[in-house]
Amino acid sequence: MAKRVIVAGGGIAGLTAAYRLSKAPGVEVELLEASPRAGGAISTTREHGCLLEHGPDCFLAIKPAGVALCSELGLEPRLIGTIAENRKSFVERKGKLHAVPEGFYLMAPSSMASLATSRIFSTKGKARMAMEPLIPRRKETTDESLADFVRRRLGKECLERMAQPMIAGITTADPEKLSMRAAMPQFPEMEEKHGSIIKALAARMIGGGTGASGPRYGMFATLDGGMQVLVDALAGVLGPRLRTGVRVQSVAREGDRWAVATSAGPLAADALVLALPSPAAASLLRPHDPRLAELLASLHCASVATVHLAFREADLPLPAAMGFVVPAVENRFTVAASFTSRKFPGRAPGGVSLVRVFAGGATRPSDSTLPDDDIRRRVLADLRDLLKAAGEPLFSNVDRHEGAMPQYHVGHLDRVDEIEKRAAALPGLALCGASYRGVGVPDCIKNAEDAVAGLAR
To answer: Which domains does the chain show, CATH number per domain?
Structure first.
């Protein structure tokens, strides 16, 4: 008799989990998604000839799981990288946008020469950063916040002017709470191996490697028709095994099987995969393990609002760059902006500038709750100030993502270790998704593949 597995949650993790199980011999899988469509945060639409990404617009090509899954699905010919000549970004300082120094990696420079000419930092701030190779290794092995790490190694100004806005542009996180080992493990590893972040980055530059995907895609890759192409491919393979509009209401153990109560009626399964946000998983598992539910509920999330705006190119002539980030010390409504029509080809018709602006996040939670018109007005004011946008947008729309950005606070990996240990003690249960071991698309794919590997045996 075939082993029956139910996957709850049809985001990229749930889709990947169901896809992998569908390929396993002797396994029958059913994927249940409460909303009318699969894909979760990933959603692509078109408006007035513009391609709009309502969730992630790309993924890290240097993490292999994303490219590998696309290749397996026959999508590799449709993978595209960022526009080569526009692979730079800006940081605001006192109302002006300044280019990130060449060779700067998120929070640290690999070249003192490019740092020396940057207008993002003061002379004092540059001098402190240049001292980083002289800072001794940290002896403690406990987790620390990103803010503590950067202040210790590179100084306060590097934190405020570069690390904080760059990380906020990725995770909308509060650097005082963000776990360095969970969110940016490469930097503690650099410190441990080389004794210096700058030395480690310089060695990487000399070595010349960014990973096998780097030369073709750069650091980021997407699909020619948007990220929805990946969702549609996975959904197409699953076919009727994917059921949308079906919500899992409760789960219970009946003998050696799972009894799953859903909005479409009861189901039974030998194994259960919860590819849900951690609060939803906590609610379902509380009757089975209160401590597991407590841990799941303790994982924090932030909310964000994004705004797409399209202008006539004459009213908003975008620079040759992918976007900009705004340090919190600038006290501006905008957290970051992506120059969509400059970032990837085929995102807007000729003569149109398309931008996507981010607001809210962990440090400004109330901003994402404002009325749509207020969000539009404040975003437009920032674009007029920083980019000299003129006239009115051809169109604009606001997306809200409530509780959609997992926040990996200090100690996160210890909590996840305990979560996984307790989940493994419940027969035939697996957890996966952005709440645990990485928020990016490749992280979610790998997390789902690892989670279901044992169930497929």
So the answer is: 3-40+230-299+409-453 (3.50.50.60), 44-85+301-407 (3.90.660.20), 101-212 (1.10.3110.10)
